[in-house]
TrEMBL record:
Membrane topology qualifier: Multi-pass membrane protein
InterPro entries: CorA_TM1_TM2
Localization: Membrane
Species of provenance: Phaeoacremonium minimum (strain UCR-PA7) (Esca disease fungus)
Keywords from the named record: Membrane, Transmembrane, Transmembrane helix
Listed name of the protein: Uncharacterized protein
Transmembrane segments: 144-163, 183-203
Keyword Transmembrane helix: yes
Family matches, as Gene3D superfamilies: Magnesium transport protein CorA, transmembrane region
Protein backbone atom coordinates (compact mmCIF):
# COMPACT_ATOMS: atom_id res chain seq x y z
CA UNK A 1 0.00 0.00 0.00
CA UNK A 2 2.89 2.33 0.65
CA UNK A 3 4.19 1.89 -2.91
CA UNK A 4 0.71 2.48 -4.33
CA UNK A 5 0.34 5.63 -2.25
CA UNK A 6 3.73 6.90 -3.43
CA UNK A 7 2.88 6.27 -7.09
CA UNK A 8 -0.48 8.02 -6.70
CA UNK A 9 1.22 10.96 -4.98
CA UNK A 10 3.67 11.36 -7.88
CA UNK A 11 0.84 11.16 -10.44
CA UNK A 12 -1.33 13.74 -8.69
CA UNK A 13 1.46 16.26 -8.19
CA UNK A 14 2.72 15.81 -11.75
CA UNK A 15 -0.70 16.80 -13.05
CA UNK A 16 -0.72 19.69 -10.57
CA UNK A 17 2.64 20.94 -11.90
CA UNK A 18 1.39 20.89 -15.49
CA UNK A 19 -1.78 22.77 -14.54
CA UNK A 20 0.25 25.33 -12.59
CA UNK A 21 2.52 25.81 -15.59
CA UNK A 22 -0.50 26.67 -17.72
CA UNK A 23 -1.87 29.05 -15.09
CA UNK A 24 1.39 31.01 -14.87
CA UNK A 25 2.02 31.06 -18.61
CA UNK A 26 1.53 34.58 -19.95
CA UNK A 27 -0.71 35.06 -22.95
CA UNK A 28 1.23 36.80 -25.76
CA UNK A 29 -0.16 39.90 -27.40
CA UNK A 30 -2.08 39.42 -30.62
CA UNK A 31 -4.11 36.44 -31.70
CA UNK A 32 -4.39 33.80 -28.93
CA UNK A 33 -3.35 30.33 -29.96
CA UNK A 34 -3.82 27.89 -27.03
CA UNK A 35 -2.29 24.44 -27.25
CA UNK A 36 -5.51 22.43 -27.48
CA UNK A 37 -3.74 19.10 -27.87
CA UNK A 38 -1.81 19.70 -24.64
CA UNK A 39 -5.00 20.64 -22.80
CA UNK A 40 -6.72 17.53 -24.10
CA UNK A 41 -3.87 15.22 -23.08
CA UNK A 42 -3.61 16.67 -19.56
CA UNK A 43 -7.39 16.35 -19.13
CA UNK A 44 -7.21 12.70 -20.16
CA UNK A 45 -4.40 11.97 -17.68
CA UNK A 46 -6.23 13.82 -14.90
CA UNK A 47 -9.29 11.62 -15.44
CA UNK A 48 -7.16 8.49 -15.32
CA UNK A 49 -5.57 9.59 -12.04
CA UNK A 50 -8.99 10.18 -10.48
CA UNK A 51 -10.13 6.77 -11.71
CA UNK A 52 -7.15 4.95 -10.16
CA UNK A 53 -7.58 6.86 -6.90
CA UNK A 54 -11.23 5.84 -6.69
CA UNK A 55 -10.31 2.21 -7.26
CA UNK A 56 -7.47 2.38 -4.71
CA UNK A 57 -9.76 4.00 -2.15
CA UNK A 58 -12.40 1.30 -2.56
CA UNK A 59 -9.74 -1.39 -2.33
CA UNK A 60 -8.36 0.16 0.83
CA UNK A 61 -11.85 0.28 2.31
CA UNK A 62 -12.30 -3.43 1.63
CA UNK A 63 -8.92 -4.24 3.19
CA UNK A 64 -9.82 -2.23 6.28
CA UNK A 65 -13.18 -3.95 6.60
CA UNK A 66 -11.59 -7.39 6.36
CA UNK A 67 -8.88 -6.46 8.85
CA UNK A 68 -11.51 -5.12 11.23
CA UNK A 69 -13.36 -8.45 11.02
CA UNK A 70 -10.09 -10.25 11.73
CA UNK A 71 -9.46 -8.10 14.80
CA UNK A 72 -13.04 -8.60 16.00
CA UNK A 73 -12.79 -12.37 15.70
CA UNK A 74 -9.67 -12.39 17.84
CA UNK A 75 -10.21 -12.56 21.59
CA UNK A 76 -7.58 -9.94 22.23
CA UNK A 77 -5.97 -8.14 19.25
CA UNK A 78 -2.23 -7.89 19.50
CA UNK A 79 -0.25 -4.68 19.32
CA UNK A 80 0.93 -5.68 15.85
CA UNK A 81 -2.63 -5.95 14.59
CA UNK A 82 -3.49 -2.56 16.04
CA UNK A 83 -0.41 -1.00 14.46
CA UNK A 84 -1.31 -2.51 11.11
CA UNK A 85 -4.86 -1.21 11.42
CA UNK A 86 -3.64 2.30 12.24
CA UNK A 87 -1.27 2.11 9.29
CA UNK A 88 -4.09 1.10 6.98
CA UNK A 89 -6.21 3.98 8.26
CA UNK A 90 -3.33 6.33 7.53
CA UNK A 91 -3.08 5.13 3.93
CA UNK A 92 -6.84 5.38 3.52
CA UNK A 93 -6.72 9.00 4.67
CA UNK A 94 -3.73 9.67 2.38
CA UNK A 95 -5.55 8.27 -0.66
CA UNK A 96 -8.63 10.31 0.21
CA UNK A 97 -6.51 13.46 0.45
CA UNK A 98 -4.91 12.73 -2.91
CA UNK A 99 -8.40 12.19 -4.35
CA UNK A 100 -9.41 15.69 -3.24
CA UNK A 101 -6.21 17.14 -4.66
CA UNK A 102 -6.83 15.38 -7.96
CA UNK A 103 -10.39 16.75 -8.07
CA UNK A 104 -8.97 20.23 -7.48
CA UNK A 105 -6.54 19.72 -10.37
CA UNK A 106 -9.45 18.74 -12.57
CA UNK A 107 -11.43 21.87 -11.69
CA UNK A 108 -8.40 24.10 -12.23
CA UNK A 109 -7.75 22.51 -15.61
CA UNK A 110 -11.39 22.96 -16.58
CA UNK A 111 -11.07 26.61 -15.59
CA UNK A 112 -8.03 26.99 -17.87
CA UNK A 113 -9.94 25.43 -20.76
CA UNK A 114 -12.84 27.84 -20.26
CA UNK A 115 -10.35 30.72 -20.06
CA UNK A 116 -8.76 29.67 -23.35
CA UNK A 117 -12.20 29.48 -24.98
CA UNK A 118 -13.21 32.90 -23.63
CA UNK A 119 -9.91 34.44 -24.71
CA UNK A 120 -10.34 33.21 -28.27
CA UNK A 121 -14.00 34.27 -28.28
CA UNK A 122 -13.05 37.73 -27.01
CA UNK A 123 -10.43 38.09 -29.73
CA UNK A 124 -12.93 37.03 -32.39
CA UNK A 125 -15.43 39.53 -30.98
CA UNK A 126 -12.83 42.28 -31.29
CA UNK A 127 -12.23 41.29 -34.91
CA UNK A 128 -15.98 41.38 -35.54
CA UNK A 129 -16.13 44.91 -34.09
CA UNK A 130 -13.30 46.01 -36.38
CA UNK A 131 -15.06 44.47 -39.36
CA UNK A 132 -18.24 46.29 -38.42
CA UNK A 133 -16.40 49.60 -38.09
CA UNK A 134 -14.65 49.09 -41.43
CA UNK A 135 -17.96 48.21 -43.06
CA UNK A 136 -19.57 51.29 -41.56
CA UNK A 137 -16.74 53.48 -42.84
CA UNK A 138 -16.96 51.89 -46.29
CA UNK A 139 -20.71 52.38 -46.30
CA UNK A 140 -20.36 56.09 -45.58
CA UNK A 141 -17.73 56.44 -48.31
CA UNK A 142 -19.89 54.53 -50.80
CA UNK A 143 -22.85 56.76 -50.02
CA UNK A 144 -20.75 59.79 -50.83
CA UNK A 145 -19.46 58.19 -54.05
CA UNK A 146 -22.99 57.24 -55.04
CA UNK A 147 -24.22 60.77 -54.41
CA UNK A 148 -21.42 62.32 -56.48
CA UNK A 149 -22.02 59.75 -59.22
CA UNK A 150 -25.75 60.43 -59.39
CA UNK A 151 -25.07 64.15 -59.43
CA UNK A 152 -22.37 64.38 -62.11
CA UNK A 153 -22.51 61.19 -64.19
CA UNK A 154 -25.79 61.76 -66.12
CA UNK A 155 -24.96 65.29 -67.30
CA UNK A 156 -21.34 64.26 -67.97
CA UNK A 157 -22.51 61.34 -70.09
CA UNK A 158 -24.95 63.51 -72.02
CA UNK A 159 -22.36 66.21 -72.66
CA UNK A 160 -19.84 63.59 -73.80
CA UNK A 161 -22.36 62.12 -76.24
CA UNK A 162 -23.26 65.42 -77.82
CA UNK A 163 -19.65 66.60 -77.97
CA UNK A 164 -18.66 63.73 -80.25
CA UNK A 165 -17.96 64.39 -83.89
CA UNK A 166 -20.91 62.20 -84.81
CA UNK A 167 -23.19 65.12 -83.94
CA UNK A 168 -23.05 68.53 -85.60
CA UNK A 169 -25.08 71.66 -85.10
CA UNK A 170 -25.71 74.18 -87.88
CA UNK A 171 -25.99 77.58 -86.26
CA UNK A 172 -27.39 79.22 -89.41
CA UNK A 173 -30.26 76.77 -89.85
CA UNK A 174 -30.52 75.78 -86.17
CA UNK A 175 -30.67 72.07 -87.00
CA UNK A 176 -28.82 69.03 -85.59
CA UNK A 177 -27.36 66.37 -87.85
CA UNK A 178 -26.19 62.85 -86.89
CA UNK A 179 -23.44 61.00 -88.76
CA UNK A 180 -24.18 57.65 -90.30
CA UNK A 181 -21.03 56.29 -88.61
CA UNK A 182 -22.53 56.53 -85.14
CA UNK A 183 -22.53 52.74 -84.98
CA UNK A 184 -18.73 52.86 -84.65
CA UNK A 185 -19.16 54.29 -81.14
CA UNK A 186 -21.16 51.29 -79.99
CA UNK A 187 -18.82 48.87 -81.73
CA UNK A 188 -15.92 50.07 -79.55
CA UNK A 189 -17.81 51.05 -76.40
CA UNK A 190 -19.61 47.76 -75.74
CA UNK A 191 -16.60 45.38 -76.16
CA UNK A 192 -14.40 47.70 -74.09
CA UNK A 193 -16.94 47.69 -71.26
CA UNK A 194 -17.25 43.90 -71.34
CA UNK A 195 -13.47 43.42 -71.45
CA UNK A 196 -12.98 45.75 -68.47
CA UNK A 197 -15.61 43.89 -66.43
CA UNK A 198 -14.02 40.53 -67.31
CA UNK A 199 -10.53 41.71 -66.32
CA UNK A 200 -11.86 43.00 -63.00
CA UNK A 201 -13.56 39.66 -62.30
CA UNK A 202 -10.41 37.67 -63.13
CA UNK A 203 -8.32 39.95 -60.94
CA UNK A 204 -10.65 39.40 -57.99
CA UNK A 205 -10.44 35.63 -58.47
CA UNK A 206 -6.63 35.65 -58.70
CA UNK A 207 -6.09 38.08 -55.80
CA UNK A 208 -8.86 37.65 -53.21
CA UNK A 209 -8.97 40.30 -50.46
CA UNK A 210 -7.18 39.44 -47.20
CA UNK A 211 -9.54 38.68 -44.33
CA UNK A 212 -9.23 40.65 -41.11
CA UNK A 213 -7.57 38.67 -38.29
CA UNK A 214 -6.19 35.77 -40.36
CA UNK A 215 -2.61 34.62 -39.76
CA UNK A 216 -0.32 31.96 -41.15
CA UNK A 217 -0.85 29.75 -38.09
CA UNK A 218 -4.59 30.33 -37.75
CA UNK A 219 -6.26 27.12 -36.63
CA UNK A 220 -9.76 28.36 -37.48
CA UNK A 221 -12.87 28.72 -35.41
CA UNK A 222 -13.91 25.13 -36.06
CA UNK A 223 -10.64 23.77 -34.63
CA UNK A 224 -10.98 26.04 -31.61
CA UNK A 225 -14.45 24.78 -30.74
CA UNK A 226 -13.55 21.16 -31.51
CA UNK A 227 -10.43 21.08 -29.33
CA UNK A 228 -12.01 22.86 -26.37
CA UNK A 229 -15.27 20.91 -26.49
CA UNK A 230 -13.41 17.59 -26.46
CA UNK A 231 -11.40 18.60 -23.38
CA UNK A 232 -14.49 19.93 -21.57
CA UNK A 233 -16.39 16.70 -22.30
CA UNK A 234 -13.54 14.67 -20.86
CA UNK A 235 -13.39 16.71 -17.66
CA UNK A 236 -17.15 16.74 -17.14
CA UNK A 237 -17.45 12.99 -17.61
CA UNK A 238 -18.77 12.99 -21.18
CA UNK A 239 -17.72 10.56 -23.88
CA UNK A 240 -15.75 11.56 -26.94
CA UNK A 241 -15.99 9.55 -30.13
Amino acid sequence: MEEIAQLQDVSVWTIRDRVREMETRRTPAGKPNPNYRDLHDIARHAIHVIETLDVAGKTMGSVLAEHQDFMTSSTEPSHVSKDIHRRLLFFEHLLLSLRHRSASNKERLLNEIHLAYNTVAQYDSGISVKIGQAAQSDSAAMKMVAFVTLTFLPPTFISAIFSMSFFSYDADSGHWSVSEKLWLYWVFAIPTTLATSLLWFLWRQAHPPALVGTESEDTGVADVKSGLSRSIKLLTGGTVA
